[in-house]
Specification:
alpha+beta, Phosphorylase Kinase, domain 1, 2 domains, seven-stranded antiparallel beta sheet, 45% helix, binds zinc ion
């Protein structure tokens, strides 16, 4: 049985069809049964798709193109696929930076590493909640059940808000680990999509922010002492209606 430590470095090569048959089968088995590697594999696949879409939409500047060519030359030098230097993810990151430079209010890759790391964790947790059949710890549409459930489990007290009337019924609550601390997540349904709202201490930055990553949209805003991180693959329109309704109810 393949271990996570063997699986992780092979995910990228797997996506590029660079593994032999036996390795591929072992890795597929592992992904199918591992709650940690499955979302990782899916996230990588989505990232690859995003990159492909971005790469065709944005023409890289000359300096970046030569970096990419240099990276590709290193790849072609015969180093084994697993142990090679910067693979397409590294190249991808350069392209994403180029995209970020060209886009106004949206940050794809930000200079603020802590915020960036939290965004990553929030999106990872969202993915895990969808894939690991661990959407809720307390399944209830009753805010009077969900809000007290968090009491004693975390120092953060999320507002109990059910937005069923606005079309976003509360599914329940879950305790997640973000930045090494237990934080509440409120789970909502938006049609066929799930919206996770993570509640952290209010962070720096006064303006609401949007992150697009791995096919998901993340919105971050502060309200009083609390910072909200909402993530979903709902349509931009639906997501913005949700945020509007949530913020109106939370304030
Ligand atoms: Zn694993």
């Amino acid at each position: 049985m393949m271990q996570c430590s063997d699986a992780r470095p092979r995910l990228e090569a797997h996506l590029d069809n660079e593994l032999d048959e036996a390795e591929r089968a072992a890795l597929d088995d592992h992904i199918a049964s591992c709650a940690d590697c499955a979302p990782e594999a899916l996230a990588l696949e989505r990232l690859r798709d995003d990159i492909r879409a971005s790469a065709s939409a944005y023409r890289a500047p000359a300096a970046l193109r030569s970096q990419i060519r240099a990276a590709l030359r290193r790849d072609a030098s015969g180093a084994p696929a697993i142990a090679r230097g910067p693979g397409w993810l590294a190249v991808a990151a350069s392209i994403m930076i180029a995209v970020a430079l060209g886009s106004g209010g949206t940050w794809l890759i930000s200079g603020d590493r802590q915020r960036d790391a939290i965004a990553d964790e929030v999106i990872d947790s969202h993915l895990r909640s969808l894939l690991a059949e661990h959407l809720t710890d307390v399944a209830s549409s009753d805010k009077h059940t969900v809000k007290p459930w968090f009491g004693g489990r975390t120092e953060l007290s999320p507002p109990g808000i059910n937005l069923a009337a606005e079309g976003f019924p509360l599914v329940g609550g879950r305790l997640d680990l973000i930045d090494g601390k237990p934080v509440p997540a409120l789970v909502y349904r938006a049609g066929k999509h799930i919206i996770n709202v993570f509640v952290l201490p209010a962070g720096h930055g006064d303006h609401p922010e949007t992150v697009h990553r791995q096919g998901y949209t993340l919105r971050h805003w502060n309200e009083g002492d609390l910072g909200y991180w909402a993530v979903s693959d709902a349509s931009p329109d639906e997501f913005s209606r949700f945020e509007h309704a949530f913020r109106a109810a939370a304030s």
